[in-house]
Structures are given as C-alpha cells and as structure tokens.
What does this fold into?
Amino acid sequence: MISGVKRSGMRVTLMVGAMAALTACQDGNFQFLNKKPDADGDAGATRSVKLIERDVEAPDVFQVTEAGLWDGRPSLGGVWVAHPDVIEPERVIIRNTTNDKFVIGALFRRERENPGPRLQVSSDAAAALGVLAGKPVQLNVTALRREQVEQTPPPAPEPEATAETKPDPEAKPDGMIEEKPLDPIKSAEKAIEKAEAKATPATPPKRSNAGLEKPYVQIGIFSVESNAKSAAKTMKAAGLKAEIKKQTSKGKTFWRVIVGPAKTAAERTSNLKKIKAKGFGDAYAVKG
It folds into this structure.
C-alpha cells in the first residue's frame, strides 16, 4: 500500500510539471527553446572601420606648369613657391619635370613683378627639387586637398588569454585613427615669425617711435655681405637711414638691410615709396 502511495505521488508531480511547461508555452515564453547566441558570430558581425586621411590633387583649385627660378638667396619659411595668380595660400605638390623629383610644400601669392619666370622658388624647395641658383627649370605645381576614406582592416587573430593580459589605458578606441599631418603653410609662417622674433633683441632699447609697431622697412635679405652693403649705400644716397643686420638660420648666414626707424606712419609710407622707386619692389614694414 505504501508503494502505491509513492507511485501516485510521482504521477501527481509529473502532471504538475507538464502543466507548468504547457502554461509557459501558452504565454509565449519559448526562451528555453531558443538557440543561444553564437559569441564568435556576434563578434564578427561588428567590424571596426578606421578613418584615414590622404592627399588628393586638386587641379581645379590651382595648377600651373611653367618655369620656376631660385635666385640663390637663402629664404625663410622652409619649402614653398610663390606665384602672382595665387589668391589664398595653398598646400601643394611641387614637381620638377626634368628629373621627376617632387616635394610637398606651401604656395603663396607673389607680389613682386620682375622680368623672368613668374614662379619663385624658396631655397629649401630648390634643394629638394635639385634646382640650381639662377637657372630656370620647368615645374608643375598642383594644389592638394585632404580627404577621409574608410578602411576596413582584416580580422586579427585573437590573442591567447593569459593572467598577465591587461588592457592598454592609452589605446585609442576602434573606429578612428587620429592623424596630424604637417601643414607646410603654417610651418612656413611659424618659421618666418620665429626668425623675426630671434632678430628682435630680448630687451630692445627705448625708441621715440613707440607708437609704431613696425617702424622699419626691410628692403631685402642677402646671402653676400657686399651686396647688402651696396644696397645700404644706395639707401643712404637717397637720404634714408639704413642698417645691416647679420643673422643665421639653419646654418646659413645672411644679411638683412632695413631702413628706419620712422616716427610716424606717414614717414614710413614715404620711406617705402622711395625704396620701391630704387628697385626694391618687395620691401615691407618690419619691427626691426
């Protein structure tokens, strides 16, 4: 009789379990029948996409192919060329069509109009392109633009998990590569500003022309001292006070010739007109 009771209890238990499962099905809860997600499959579905930047030529912005000239004088600002048709400074690729050398540099507007090639070349650009002083060479100058493209890297093998494996706190998140390309335009401008800052004494003497930020006019930079002295002599003959300043940049020595100081803006304008009348068309105002 006891065994009969046990068998009845087992049947009641099985019936209760079956009813609970049937109730779960009727409520729509079929989670116990669902297939568990594949960890490897889900991980593979999310692919990291990296953004990279690259230079693209933009001939519609600016492009010329004509003779370029380096006058042989050392120039500040690094690699650059100047052309009278330029409206805004540009980042460009400069090619020497005679030897297939090229370099990335800056493009500026050339204010000076002299006989000969319109394309002016800096000393550093000439060195990179194999251009000799005083010898025009055919150059191709094309504007550059930066564009972002997506790059999907191939899946990397999973590293073996070890107790010593720790996340890198300095690692950048997937999906972006931060790239800071060198801007030749900003580099050139900073180099010129830095050279002018070095040329200014740390504690300049007090002058009566404190009202003018740039009381001097620079007539040129010369790589030969005798040429600088000759230019200064020409200025003195025109009734202008000229100074010669010897400086060094990147291991190269040069001589700057400046006129002044002017006490008023009108006096500085008058000096600038006299200087340009003597053939120094690219003269401009400087601090000293």
Notes: The chain has a mean pLDDT of 75.
